[in-house]
Amino acid sequence: MERIDAKALAAKIKAEAAQQAARLREAGIVPKLSVILVGADPASEVYVRGKERDCAECGIESELLRLPAETSEAQLLAEIARRNADPAVHGILVQLPLPPQIREQRVIEAISPEKDVDGFTPVNVGRLLVGEDCFLPCTPAGCLALLKAAGTPIAGKRAVVLGRSNIVGKPMALLLLRENATVTICHSKTEHLSELTRQADILVAAIGRDRFVTAEMVKEGATVIDVGINRGPDGKLHGDVDEAALAGKAGKITPVPGGVGLMTRAMLMVNTLRAAQRAQEAQKEK
Ligand code: GUN
User: Fold this and answer.
1) Strand 237-238 versus strand 230-231 pairing type
2) Which residues are paired to 186 by β-bridges?
3) What are 69-91's pLDDT values in tens digits?
4) Fewer CB within 10 Å, N side or C side of the chain?
């Protein structure tokens, strides 16, 4: 079983991003990402720190607005509106999850689609659905890049996506479909799950359950992309896939940690630069 080298791929993508950022800076544009964190969810803190580090590495300016957990929806919407209107801000990312008094979808919809580097707004989701150019959600885009780097054939193959979240499962299925895979989405209500997963040439696990995917659920030689990151009873981080049990079964697999997570962050840099580049192009047209 081969481990797909996400570290090397993420480093390559970030190096390209850094070159692009340098070119933009030479043209007088400082690419900038604005991150908003509401409350102090420990996992979100870790993600946000990682994003800031990546920005620094790539020559992207980052700004972090920390808001207290009791922030109202109106206050958060006002902060988003300010950033939508600020030409110096190219990308806006509101870290999820949000506290219960704030409607997540309402907040996502307030972000300008041109600055929506998460690819979560209905405009970008719709563009993805109909196959138009758009910001791709970072995690599915990273998974696709991993499949391509691994040399896994996609067109005509059977892909099974485990999980139907708006952030990963649904857009992942659309991306695989765009690549001409035959796609099945499975979820917690799916009957005869193993029967379906065993047919998958490509299996993407994004259900958030510690080592849920076992050897008998996997086709011999399949490529397995593990999106999960779960704290196990042993206190360690594990994926949605029981990697140890899959040895000799799967063809290729992404490790956790050090797999998809690195790609998500790299893709955020790509999207932010794209937003900055588009802003530059829009300026030229004026
Ligand atoms: N929370 C967990 N993953 C993500 C992500 O990709 N984007 C945002 N904004 N919040 C998240």
Assistant:
1) antiparallel
2) 162
3) 999 999 999 999 999 999 999 99
4) C
Structural contact between residues 113 and 80, judged by C-beta atoms closer than 8 angstroms: no
193 lines ligand 1 (CB under 6 A): no
> Mean pLDDT over all residues of the chain?
97
Burial of 40 (0-12, 13-18, 19+ CB in 10 A): exposed
**What is the tens place of the pLDDT at every residue in 41-69?**
999 999 999 999 999 999 999 999 999 99
Handedness of CA 69, 75, 79, 84 (dihedral sign): positive
Residue nearest to atom 9 of ligand 1 (CA): 95
The span from the first CA to the last CA of the chain, in angstroms, equals 54
Atom in ligand 1 nearest the alpha carbon of residue 264: 6
pTM over 0.90: yes
Measured CA to CA, the distance from residue 102 to residue 90 in angstroms comes to 24
Q: In this structure, are strands 91-94 and 32-38 parallel, antiparallel, or unpaired?
A: parallel
d(CA 46, CA 40): 10
Residue type, 58: C
Looking at the DSSP bridge assignments, the partners of residue 204 are 161, 225
* 3-state SS, residue 224: strand
Cβ of residue 123 lying under 6 Å from some atom of ligand 1: no
Residue 150's SS3 state is coil
- Alpha helices, DSSP H, located in the chain: 6-26, 42-58, 73-85, 104-110, 122-130, 138-149, 169-178, 193-197, 243-246, 260-285
Comparing C-alpha atoms, which of 139, 155, 118 is closest to residue 205? 139
Alpha carbons 46 and 50: distance in angstroms, whole number: 6
CB 96 less than 6 A from any atom of ligand 1: yes
**Given CA atoms 154, 181, 212, 146 in this order, what sign does their dihedral have?**
positive
